[in-house]
Amino acid sequence: MDRPEWTRQPDLASRRAGGGVVWANDELFAEKENLIKPERPEYQPSTFGHKGQIYDGWETRRRREPGADRAVVRLGLPGVVHGVVVDTAFFTGNYPPFASVEAVAVDGYPSPEELAALEWTTIVPKSPLAGDAENFFAVESRQRFTHVRLTIHPDGGVARFRAHGAPVADLRLLDLDSLDLAALENGAHVVEASNMFYSSPANLISPGFARVMGEGWETARRRDDGNDWVVVALAGAGVPRLAELDTTHFKGNAPGWASLSGSVDGASWFDVLPRTRLQPDTRHRFPLPGASELTRVRLDIYPDGGMARLRLYGGLTEAGKKELTERFHGAA
């Protein structure tokens, strides 16, 4: 099945990105927290707990009165949602026939009661669902949101909920003179990569440390004379001062060497970090004295292998600050 292009964007709701399910009106059969687990749902037949068959998802009891069930998700990466996935994997006779999604933007850390009192924006109207399937819904709104609310009509089970889109950082929480220019949560994104056989290159710039090898970027084994690479558009134009190349968990499959190149808007490329030897399972940190302004960085690994994280610490230029400011206020 062809997946929509927007599913290549990061899942803003994922637990791996810091998302959380802050409230659900019912979770008798299966816990609401399962909705945002980054792993694909699993199912083992004839595994019964004290409430019935165990499901890897969120499942509510059968309704005997009018109404609908709801769950509220705090986005780990606030931003513009381009599409949502309501995945009913393994729910066949107990999936909800319809779902709708609303969203809201709020400052601070509101309680579920405070969230309920706000005015929510519908981003997916009440729409039919298929059972045991990924249900894709494109979102037209280009507003920045911090929370989404999934409503199932009238009840049932949903395995996973994904909210794919573009993170938009809150300027009030950043020091624009000292930040990770390549961080997904600050607005950076992967432009292209030579290979993504084992895992997505977007993992490189995701929040936090990789817990396992699968949370990094790993390429297939090369059988030619070339090398693998990834290009990242930075949060804004900036001057890097420190690079971190993290091969944690990659032991027999770490790259032997790596280099960094920079560019302004994809024009000519220049050296940022020359080809440098790497060690397996190690956080490497390299000062970048005399680095120039750049808007994109290219990581080359030689010849192939895996990298857990790429960090590029520095400060935004005046142009970069203006870009980030316009992005935040334009989506507010």
UniProtKB/TrEMBL annotation:
Class of the enzyme per the UniProt entry, highest EC level: hydrolase
Alphabetic keyword roster: Hydrolase, Purine metabolism
Reaction it catalyzes: allantoate + H2O = (S)-ureidoglycolate + urea
Pathway(s) annotated for this protein in UniProt: Nitrogen metabolism; (S)-allantoin degradation; (S)-ureidoglycolate from allantoate (aminidohydrolase route): step 1/1
Domain Allantoicase: 18-167, 187-315
Enzyme Commission numbers on file: 3.5.3.4
The keyword Protein biosynthesis belongs to this UniProt entry's keyword annotation: no
GO molecular function, one term: allantoicase activity
Keyword Hydrolase: yes
Entry similarity comment: Belongs to the allantoicase family.
Name of the protein in question: Probable allantoicase
